Amino acid sequence: MATPDIHLVERAQAGSAEAFGQLYAHYAQELYRFAYYYLGSREEAEDAVQDAVCAAFQSVGALRRAGAFRAWLFAILLNTCKRHIASVQQRRLTSPLEEAQQLAEDECPDALLSALELRDAIYALSEEERGILLLSVIGGYKSHEIAKALGCPSGTVRSKLSRSLAKLRMAAEKESL
């Protein structure tokens, strides 16, 4: 996916709602996918993306470097997802069975089942592991970029990413048995 023009970010920083809307359109799918796999629920993901985009729109003028827009936007979304998890700690997310029934009109039941199993395996990871995995896989960030964002050593990020991927592999192997 091509990076949007820095001039578009600068226009958004200057107060252009249209420019910010174009930036949102560019990143919407990536943001949603990240939030969905982080939170494990369509509704929660939609809410988190909406909250993060509203927060970003309100504070885009404070962004120091236009070239850092994407990382800044994902950092806002990550923090928003963490807040959403804290706010729903008492209630559980929609169960896979209920969600499968909601999506029953889908013509690919095997693909749906696989997607639900992947979502459950990702949600079984710790919050930190899930964040690192999704920043890497969906966000496309390198370990040193994730380390900088999380304030920890790159080696720690690499080892946690490796362990997270191993856990997903083990979960996939269990499902295939």
Structure, described:
The mean pLDDT is 83. With 177 residues, the chain is mainly alpha-helical. Helix 8 packs across helix 9. 75% of the residues lie in helices and 0% in strands. The chain is built from 9 helices and no strands. It starts with 5 loop residues before the first helix and ends with a helix.
Total strand segments:
0
Helix content: over 70%
Distance between the termini: 36 Å
The succession of helices and strands, N to C, reads HHHHHHHHH
The global form is: globular
Radius of gyration, in angstroms, nearest whole number: 17 Å
Given helix and strand content, the structural type is mainly alpha
Query: Unreliable segments (pLDDT under 50, ≥5 consecutive)?
Result: none
> What share of residues are in beta strands?
under 5%
Q: What is the mean predicted local confidence, pLDDT?
A: 83
Total count of helical runs of at least 4 residues: 9
Largest sheet: none
List the helices and strands and how they pair.
Layout: H1 6-13, H2 17-39, H3 42-59, H4 69-87, H5 96-102, H6 109-124, H7 127-137, H8 143-150, H9 154-176
Helix pairs in contact: 1-2, 2-3, 2-4, 3-4, 6-9, 7-9, 8-9
